[in-house]
Design brief:
alpha+beta
């Protein structure tokens, strides 16, 4: 331990504690990485007032979760009969959402029928599916075959115990919605505890059962990076902060009797606690409601942050990447507005109405198929009006909006199985590639950025395993390559022909069999 680090360790009130007395945040251990009381207060305030507000809007537009507003069927004459509202209604103009106000036509007393078509969510899901629909493989580039095999098996075990393909889809979803995501590499037990637990079993089996290293996805709404002022790509320290509900009640029970003792009083609610973590290359402190929960050093990081930052699409000179949701929001609002306008027009015009003259009182008429009406009035008449009329300009406008959504996102309806593209006389595989060219190119670009993040997290995992004495490796042997599967359906006959061609030019047979899936090795992190 260096003298500066030893001084900070001794100065920290958390040194030697594993959960102890109540105290406010003490940041002496993080003084050299720009974290003190003033910078902490500023970072928390900016994150809450700027970052979280914006990110919540992006998640709201993606998720569009139903919000209960009334009991079904209990609406009054001037209210909507639906029991729910949708968050995307916030983007509709006032003439649709607040009839009768000064900004709308005062003749419209009841709210119009609102139509919300979430064209954002299915596009985000298609992007995530193309990126992580199939297992990926972590391939070691170590110098010896024995080390490569051990590293591959260990990484597969740890990634799978951390969530596997579910972890990958979660991080991809958050990154697509918010523009970036962070991965935290956490050591959960010491090497001695692991060896004691793994005694009598194979180390790989023990890793698969309960790995001492875990990868966690940090929601950008919870993660607060403290960046180097001279290099926005370098994280000096990192804060994780969020609130959660506890099992305890916030207020003591006041109801009496057996049922009251079970459910408590009507005013009881769950107690909420604040979880905060401070992370630097050398220290990791955890607080629960400003009470020390854990404090430990992180020598295994070797001076690196145990946090890996992944941008969805690179944004030059910015820590946050580019969200896939943000550019679609204006078009989504326009689409919902026109759909609501069309629904109102259809409700006014979809039924024919009749103007009857000289046929008697209206309540005595029975108009229907096969009904004969008779009258002595020579001036009697029946006139029809209403009915849906064709609106070519409206249809063209809808098509233009959807085409704009396709261009901005790069996800055509064909990606979800809706065949609309004109593929001509091309073969099936080539037709798919041409029609999905935008989505495939975006996916290939993301494989680079996501792959770099996953490889860096894997190197941190190997550094932790080396420090724990579970898998000894040198820094030069911790290089990782990510093998990405083809997101498109595979034509086995074409794949065999390609393999035969590769074999003729000298590619190793074992490698070709591995690519074809005929080797007994692990398919990757699943």
């Amino acid at each position: 331990m260096t003298s500066a680090k030893a001084a900070r360790t001794a100065a920290s009130p958390l040194a030697g504690h594993k959960g102890g007395p109540d105290m406010a945040y003490r940041l002496q251990a993080f003084s050299d990485v720009g974290l003190n009381e003033a910078s902490l207060a500023l970072a928390l305030r900016e994150h809450e007032t700027r970052t979280t507000t914006r990110l919540d809007k992006l998640w709201t537009y993606y998720r569009n979760a139903l919000e209960p507003v009334a009991r079904a069927g209990a609406a009054h004459a001037n209210q909507t009969a639906r029991w729910y509202a949708q968050p995307q209604e916030i983007g509709l103009p006032a003439r649709l959402t607040r009839p009768g106000s000064a900004a709308t036509d005062d003749r419209l007393r009841a709210p119009r029928e609102l139509v919300i078509e979430n064209d954002i969510a299915w596009r985000i899901h298609a992007m995530v599916d193309f990126l992580f629909a199939k297992p990926i493989r972590f391939v070691s580039t170590a110098r010896t075959e024995a080390t490569r095999n051990a590293v591959n098996s260990a990484l597969d075990a740890i990634w799978e115990s951390s969530g596997g393909i579910s972890l990958f889809t979660d991080l991809a979803l958050l990154a697509h919605v918010f523009g970036h995501v962070d991965l935290l590499v956490r050591v959960t037990e010491s090497g001695a505890d692991f060896r004691r637990r793994a005694r009598g079993t194979q180390p790989l089996d023990a890793l698969r059962a309960a790995a001492p290293v875990r990868i966690e996805v940090v929601d950008p709404r919870r993660g607060i990076p403290i960046l180097d002022p001279s290099d926005f790509r370098r994280i000096l320290s990192y804060i994780i902060r969020f609130e959660r509900e506890d099992l305890e009640l916030e207020r003591p029970r006041t109801a009496s009797g057996f049922i009251g003792s079970l459910i408590g009083s009507a005013t009881s609610r769950r107690k909420r606690s604040t979880h905060t973590e401070f992370i630097s290359p050398d220290f990791h402190h955890i607080y629960e409601n400003e009470r020390i929960a854990a404090s430990h050093e992180t020598p295994w990081t070797q001076g690196r942050m145990p946090v890996v930052h992944i941008q969805n699409v690179s944004q030059p000179l910015h820590y946050a990447g580019i969200s896939e949701v943000e550019p679609l929001i204006p078009l989504q609002d326009e689409l919902n507005t026109r759909l609501s306008d069309r629904a109102y027009r259809l409700s006014m015009q979809s039924f024919k109405m009749y103007l009857c003259k000289g046929l008697g009182a209206p309540d005595t008429l029975a108009i229907g198929p096969g009904v004969m009406l008779a009258t002595d009035d020579t001036q009697a008449s029946i006139q029809t009006f209403g009915g849906d009329a064709e609106a070519p300009s409206e249809d063209a406008h809808f098509e233009a909006i959807r085409n704009a959504l396709d261009k901005l996102s790069g996800v055509p309806p064909l990606a979800t199985g809706v065949v609309q593209g004109k593929v001509g006389n091309l073969s099936s595989a080539m037709a798919l590639k041409v029609t999905l060219m935008g989505l495939l190119s975006r996916t290939a670009r993301k494989q680079v950025t996501y792959g770099r993040g996953l490889a860096e997290a894997s190197r941190l995992i190997l550094a932790a395993l080396d420090d724990l004495g579970i898998l000894k490796t040198d820094e030069i042997d911790r290089g990782i390559r990510i093998d990405w599967p083809d997101p498109l359906p595979i034509d086995e006959r074409e794949q065999v022909q390609v393999a035969e061609t590769k074999l003729r030019i000298g590619v190793a047979k074992d490698q070709l069999l591995n690519e074809l899936g005929y080797t007994p090795t692990d398919d990757g992190a699943v």
